[in-house]
Amino acid sequence: MRKILLFFFLSASFSYGQSMNGLQLDNYAGVHSVYLNPSAIASSHWKAHLNVGFGSFMASTNRLSQETVLFSGKSYKIDDTKYGVIQNELRGPGVMVQLRNNHALAITTRYRSAQSFTGNYQVVDWLRGDVKELTDMAGSINLKNEAFSEYAVSYAAPVYEKDKHFLKVGATFKLLYGWQTASIQSAGSFQSGTSGTAIYNATGFQGHHSDLAFTSDLKIAEALKGSTPGKGSGIDIGVTYEYRPNAEGNQYLLNGKNRFDPTVANYLVKAGISVTDIGKINYNKTANYAATTLSGNFDPLSYQGLKSSQDFHNQLANDLGLEGKATERKITVKLPQVITIQADVNLGKGLFVGGVWILPKAKSIENLRTSSVISIGPRYEKNDFGFSLTGQYYGTFKRAAIGTNLRLGIVTLGTDNLLGLFKKNGLNPHVYAGFFIPLGKWTREKDDDQDNVSNRLDQCPDIAGLWAFKGCPDTDGDGIEDRFDKCPEEAGPKETNGCPDSDKDGIFDKNDACPHEAGLARFNGCPDTDNDGVPNHEDECPQLAGAPELGGCPDTDKDGIKDSQDKCKDAAGLKELDGCPLINLTQNLAQSADKELTARIAKALESSPSLPENLKNDLNAWFTKHPNGSVKLTFSGTDQEMILRIAGYYKDELTTLVGNRVTAAVAITQAGTVGLKTELVP
């Protein structure tokens, strides 16, 4: 009897639910946070988080063994009083993964079993043999029991992120498998009978149970395959808002993107609201009993020797006269839906103050009793350690408790009723524990050269550079990577391979003798405005084309004298005469031998002592004809010194051309000009 399911007397005096807010508010809670608010997993502190195993257990002094409640057959002493487990929440393998842009996906599994009982519990002790005699008493009973598991997928994502404001939403879809549902409501009384028996008279009775409630050997493997009497679905929805006044201070540029520092909580205040356990489980075949009056004679000895819950059921139905009177019908069990409001304040340096307000939906006959809960308390957290202490007030029962949570490495443990683990305080003792594997915590990627390009992607990890060039430098900021820039310290266009060309003449400034004036390559980038082959900086007449030998200045009459210095720029002349020619006096001769040849020579000698080749040939022919002939030159003018210089110059040049057949004479006159008379002397 002590080792089987007492179906009709299942639970403790009350059951107040398991909130575990210290665990689920933690920013490092990972996949566990999805149970409080599915939006919480977006922008998590973990890249991925694997829950390996987790269990939450609530105990009661009303100890009963039941297949659907893990460890319910064990007893534990607290303050010299025996307690047994009456409520489970087992979280099986589950994983949360962060996706791109702070989106997150979670896949979870969970099993929950909970019970509720109000009425005269002395009957249970009497049937179990702990009480020898049962006195006359009221025997009203109101009890419920639920056990179900779920497979769930959750998704969360930011929907608004601007300036100081961050909003994210999330939802969970659950496939539900009902393992057991049971309920009894009965009003009546017990009267002492003979030989230790008791008579139960009920004035109203109704109840139901599902198949697995009475199987003597519950197969968990079969349940995991979906071989359960109930099936259904449910959803959780949630939204979280974060106020981030220091958002810019927590941002940093890396690999071309602005990022929030993943090693810190970016919010000052966080607030969220969620609705969980929206859904139901349908049991298509349940045994149902209903009677306005019934009575039965109970003998505790008939129960204490039973080996299985099925045996107990048969004996109970026989004693109450219900055997063979059950009807079959469908039952829908609603999930224990709650609205949860969360708030969290970041005090800095890993310290937080968080609060949760749990508001259960109005209870229905199928639901377990659950209480409204307000919890608030401080918390310290970092990636490998967390500790919280919460004060909790249960509105339904008007009682308070202290809860705590410790996260150390890959282990987490805690309780919603710390004092209840050591001493009676009017609330059920509660404890939870589990372990997990973080599959990659967020850290700021290393950037040794501090160029906002992570070492992982930096092609020049020892030199600060730019993201555009995968961390390699562009010292002069011209958009050309240094290793491809022929002038890495001077900005320049791509056309010149990164070298500057200020005057856009296609010649690098470093090779340009005139970097600020467009010029020609043959003059090292300097201009030649008049295109005379003399660069402007060497050209004495840069706007007028001229001869290089004259400093780039023009010589219109080609007499070797710059126009600017030539008084007779349209007529070739002598330097001594400022570019003006000699006055030809030969043409004034009345008669002259070989007059035509003389005239031609005289004309040629007006501006220079040189003779054209054809004229020189004609003169040599004349000398051949006149072997003793000569050329006589007579220079006249007022400046004796100048005239002598000109005469000597002409004589020397012509002697070079025709030999020693030239004579030169000087005549001082009062004329203002310098004249030349040319004669051929046979």
UniProtKB/TrEMBL annotation:
It comes from the Bacteria. Residues 555-564 have a biased composition (Basic and acidic residues). Residues 543-564 are annotated as: Disordered. GO terms for molecular function: calcium ion binding. Residues 1-17 form the signal peptide. Keywords: Calcium, Signal. Gene3D superfamilies: TSP type-3 repeat. One of its GO terms (biological process) is cell adhesion. Residues 46-416 form the DUF5723 domain. This is DUF5723 domain-containing protein. It comes from Dyadobacter helix.
